[in-house]
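Researcher: Re-running this chain for the archive, since the previous output was lost when a drive failed. Same request as before.
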Amino acid sequence: MSSSFELISHPDRTLKKHLDACNDIAQKQLAMKFIANCFFDQDLLKKIAQILVYFHDFGKATDFFQAKIIDATLEKKDNADFQGQSATYIEAFKQKQKAVFPADWKRKSATEQQKCSQHARLGAYFALSCFKDPNQDAMVELIVFKIIRKHHGYLTNFFDDGKEFVLERDTLDLLELQVKHTAFDLYESILKPQQLQTSAAAWADLKQRFARKLPFLRLQEQLKKATDIRYFFLQHLMFSLLLSADKGDMMLDQHLDKALIFKPKALLPPSLISDFKAQDAKLSQNPTKPLNQQREDAYQAIQENATQQGHRSFFSITLPTGMGKTLAAYNAAIILQHAFEKQTNVVPRIVYTLPFTSIIDQNGAILEAILTQNAQTEVSWLSKNHHLARHNEKYDETELSHSEAEYMAEGWEQPMIVTTFVQFLESIFTNQNKKLRKFHNMTNAVFILDEVQAIPSKYYKVIEFVMKKMASFFNTKFLFVTATQPIFFKDETEIIELTDPTWAKTRLYFEGLNRIVIDQKLLIESNYRAMDKTHFQEILMQDIDNQPDKSFLIIVNTVRLAQEIYGYLKAKLDTNNNNLLYLSASILPFQRLKVIKEIKDKTQQKRTIVVSTQVVEAGVDIDLDIVYRDFAPMDSINQSAGRCNRNDGEQHGTVKLMHLGSCQRIYSELLIELTKKILKNHNAIIAENQLFDLNKAYAKAVRARSTELDQTSETMIEAMYHLQLETLESVFQLIEDEDWKCNVFIPYDDYAKDLWSQYENLKTIENPFERKAQLKVLKPNLLQYVARFPKNQYGVPKGQEAAFLIYDENWKAV
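Model: Regenerated structure tokens:
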């Protein structure tokens, strides 16, 4: 065929246009990053990125793929210009097709035809023909192979399948046929401007190299003994860059220069948070109140220490709840952003991570208010990233299409991200395509981990390991925010405490408070064992009756128990004087936000009583007089205490501990036992100013028993060294698998019914890509009305047994 003809990659573009655009994105993204000398050489990374781009779609040069894509191009209705531009090539190919394909081609099964048109495996082999240095690390080459081979799916365990690299008969026959029908002459016009080349002649060398298992068995044994974690991060980084480039060319097509992702990230103004505090009436009122004075003193100390220690990598802010940790953390992150830029000439993004989606909107709203009030910043710089979040429709002054908004959000392209621990950590401990795409944007970042104690302790060691490597390779910085003693790192001296690096002043912040007491009389009476539930409810009701001027929060460990206590109180309480509220992950998301808003409303005349699960523990800014807390590890008890007399009212708050028998189903048995041991060393009433030493003793006890918690981490670290990513993915589970529950859409109101109609109408869209795109737009609103029920207790409506999303007209009876 004429060398002026151009191969087609998608129904609206040529292969050359696609690959050149991908290369532009990948190289510019790589050039914008700081990568330390202790990682791989920058020139090698650029070469790897180039090879990945220009060979990930090499297999599209086969006649088999071209036949398939030309049919798709001609079927597409909105690409008339492209069809016209490619008409001569398409007609020439149709003529060639009659002679080139085997005579029995049309008689092949659909499965066989699909195999012949697959393109990833062929590109994986030919990519290795570009490595000419005989001293090139074989593992680096195989990582390139793996990335190309799996770029449409998930990364698999290295060497797990003996057929992965070796050309056995079935694989060889297919590739031989594809090589025979590859348009090397046309592909050469794509490679030549990049100083890359390959040819049909290279196939003979590749066949010889991959014909025997023995060399790969040796490499497998070497990898089993590997002590170089750089391979893991290399595979993650380059896989992420390729995915970002590949999807970027397709999803950012409205802006052909792809300028959205190449905009320099602006340094946030150093005074951004201080200016916000000065302008916010709530933050500036009663400056002489002791608690406000302490908050401001802590804020200034954190600011000064962050400025002095900004060259370091690991930081903590340890303050009692209600002491302004959130704004202090934002301010410290901006200082660390400036320190990062000074060290590397790269402006890092700021990523604020939290335990639960339920508190992201609350924290996101604070950041939006901060960005809105400053003329130098844009609210569109912030992206909220979780399954219920709506994507930004603008970035600076640029209006975004849906695909662009999706690309920006899911790839963490904005300068500021608010997300969950799940989104953050699952993008490291994973083999999945979608999760890994954002990894390259996680490398140069300042991470805030708020309420860090919510991460299960069995993962501490592997998270410490990963963070240290990210700090070493990419200068990533981490700020841990908590009201309890940090036990995240084995050696706590590696973390700079920003309230006071010596910890002396930090202690005083705790010892200077006198807002609450922890009352463990009920625990002592039951000898720290489970008490009768009926007996507890009688005690609770008597306490509520005896203190009519006090608000109450009852926190238990399971949804079922919360529902039972709520039902008991509902039957007993006078609704004229009491506002009884229920809060858990089982209620609809939009209702959860309404309940939190109602709890915080201090204008209502009725007394507030809330029954809840742990969803109120971390970051939910509510304040009640008396808190009952079902038994839990010490850090969870601390968080619950933070919902009691949070703002230092005139009267003491009381946190009453009880044991209703469910804690060991929810929490680590070891942490439960350590908590009991620590509490038994204290009196029935524990003052707030004793909590610093209590928490310190708990942290010390946990560290002393850390070997019992490290088995999971050890397994994960070993999987990372050996590139066993499927194993890594299967072991890490921050949120327990809930396959035993079903998703039920609740037609709560007319708006919900209209959403369901829109969802049903999507099923009539024939084009699967269009259907998927519209579902993504609808999904955040749809999920606001989805509840999850145990399958063994919920009667699925007839005909919906296999449905992913169940519609229940009789929802009021559930």
